Amino acid sequence: MSSAFKAVDxxxxxxxxxxxxxxKALRTLYYVRFGFxxxxxxxxxxxxxxxxxxxxxxxxxxxxxxxxxxxxxxxSSGASRPKAPLYLNMGxxxxxxxxxxxxATSGIPSVLRVWGVWAITxxxxxxxxxxxxxxxxxxxxxILSGGISVLAGxxxxxxxxxxxxxxxxxxxxxxxxxxxxxISAIRLHRLAAKAK
Length: 196
Hints:
It is a single chain. By secondary structure, the protein is mainly alpha-helical. It has one domain. The protein is 83% helix and 0% strand. The N and C termini lie close together (7 Å).
């Protein structure tokens, strides 16, 4: 049995079976998040030159998907779930969706500022969640992703004040985040295979 599953079992989930189930659900969620991020980024790059109904819809859908993912994570991860950070993530994603819808009426710089603030705060929460789940395995990519999100968010805010403000940068951010989800999913898959 993998040490990752044994470690989670010790007083956190009750049984190794619970830990295995939680890990499987998390792995599936990570795969879905990777696929969504890639599709979303491709669509955003195709429409990113101006603010239009399509870009506004994409901008709002991204944090709403993040909110839905946090809800699924909370419901499926059992006792291994870090409750407070996941609740915080849900709240931040909902606020981001509302903020982006409002910011889109003011132009790309305003959108980048809101996205930047969300990336910073969500990155910090992601760091916390990944650290709390470290014993599950496959979380080092989530730790890196959270740290990079904080840096990227800061760059979005800086970019918003410059002459080259563009929504293509948020598409690149989504792709990178999706890659980190894929890496974590693959790592969790390998840990599960070793545990059999």
